[in-house]
């Protein structure tokens, strides 16, 4: 084998190694991502259909919040994740500046909508566990729908402020390595304080709230399950059942 053939052979071996190292795993990741997208969209469509078609599900007030979460998650899957998948598959942003700005705004909107809705669901569960009688008396479909409307209004205002503070709409795309990327533009220093506040509202505040709410729920459930009166009631019920048998 001469030097030219050896060089060509080594080139093909290196190229094959590169394909194995990057091409096949990347394809597998894209396939897995596509499966996640389909599961996200399909699973939440099933939840929405269950709410629409099943009267028993509709009669449960808390399911209004579940419906809103499913709607926002369908939007996450069909808008955010699908476009992200296409961008990853192509290797660059192919849709231009205008759609980039719209997509970034929708990206923040639907994801933050899901986060806020999860917080609302946690508050609703905590209220139910803390004071079930007052919850049953006061919580109704009208209040729940009003809360959902407020969530949409708040999320819309948040998205507008976030887009302005990060300057997305002015300069959404950048060229890096010869290809366009739809990224957040450099933050406007004039709005730095607003950006910091919104970043905290977007990440830290929801995490702290969710942890605090769910820990409180667990503690309250644990206390109720270890309540002596409840344990005696359960014991008496079991005795009655055994006696009847």
From TrEMBL:
Pfam families: 7tm_1 (PF00001). Keywords: Cell membrane, G-protein coupled receptor, Membrane, Receptor, Transducer, Transmembrane, Transmembrane helix. GO terms for molecular function: G protein-coupled receptor activity. The chain crosses the membrane at residues 20-53, 65-90, 102-123, 143-164, 203-221. GO terms for cellular component: plasma membrane. SUPFAM superfamilies: Family A G protein-coupled receptor-like. PROSITE patterns: G_PROTEIN_RECEP_F1_2. The keyword Membrane applies. It is a multi-pass membrane protein. One of its GO terms (biological process) is positive regulation of MAPK cascade. It comes from the Eukaryota. It is found in: Cell membrane. Residues 43-245 form the G-protein coupled receptors family 1 profile domain. This is Putative histamine H3 receptor-like. It comes from Stichopus japonicus (Sea cucumber).
């Amino acid at each position: 084998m001469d030097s030219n053939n050896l060089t060509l052979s080594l080139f093909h071996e290196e190229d094959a190694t590169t394909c194995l190292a990057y091409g096949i795993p990347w394809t597998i990741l894209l396939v897995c991502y596509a499966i996640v997208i389909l599961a996200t969209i399909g699973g939440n469509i099933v939840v929405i259909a269950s709410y629409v078609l099943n009267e028993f599900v509709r009669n449960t007030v808390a399911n209004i919040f579940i419906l809103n979460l499913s709607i926002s998650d369908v939007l996450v899957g069909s808008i955010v994740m699908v476009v992200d998948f296409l961008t990853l598959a192509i290797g660059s942003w192919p849709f231009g500046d205008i759609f980039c700005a719209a997509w970034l705004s929708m990206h923040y909107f639907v994801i933050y909508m899901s986060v806020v809705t999860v917080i609302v669901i946690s508050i609703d569960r905590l209220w139910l566990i803390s004071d079930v009688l007052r919850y049953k008396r006061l919580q109704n479909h009208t209040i729940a729908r009003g809360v959902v409307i407020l969530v949409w209004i708040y999320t819309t205002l948040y998205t507008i402020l976030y887009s302005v503070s990060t300057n997305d709409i002015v300069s959404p795309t950048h060229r890096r390595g010869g290809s366009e990327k739809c990224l957040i533009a450099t933050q406007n220093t004039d709005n730095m304080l607003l950006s910091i506040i919104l970043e905290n509202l977007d990440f830290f505040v929801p995490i702290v709230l969710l942890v605090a709410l769910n820990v409180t729920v667990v503690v309250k459930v644990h206390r109720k399950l270890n309540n002596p009166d409840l344990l005696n009631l359960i014991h008496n019920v079991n005795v009655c059942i055994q006696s009847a048998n």
